[in-house]
Write a structure and sequence with these properties.
188 residues, alpha/beta, Glutaredoxin, five-stranded mixed beta sheet, globular
Length: 188
Amino acid sequence: MNKKLLCASLILLFASCKSTSVSKEEANLQEKSFYDFTMNKPDGSPVKMDAYKGNVVLLVNTATKCGLTPQFEGLQSLHEKYESKGLKVLGVPCNQFMGQEPNSNEEMEAVCKKNHGVTFQLFEKSNVNGEEAIDLYKFLRVYNVEEHGNKIRWNFEKFLINRKGEVVKRFKPTTKPEEIEKYILNLI
């Protein structure tokens, strides 16, 4: 095998590898439940996740200036269709992916309502990767590491949580909300 081909093969091999190592902190967080965490609304007021006990939760990291932003409409549609049956769609804005959520919390919330009709709960802008990630995302990132790695890949990565607070499915950012409907129907 020539050197260029070998080098190219090694580059492809390493590029395709996902980080599956889990920090001690992340491992300790796995002893917790979704209900053990608190997040802040855009106005800074705290919400304990145990407020969602008994509901099915679809948690999504969002951004208003992303190519996947049209997913807001699909998320809103799921929210409207299944909220009365116990589905809660929750959005966590994040600016870690190419600065695609540059707005303040107040501006982001207004844009989501005005441009996308969002009425489901949005939280304050938060980090989902790295040392500064909020604890809830440190907890979530470890779910299905073998398939997804232990980092959030991009805006609109989704986590489906059952009525007991257990993460049951993790979806890629490109998975459209309507593709998740069948999984929601199995849980509500």
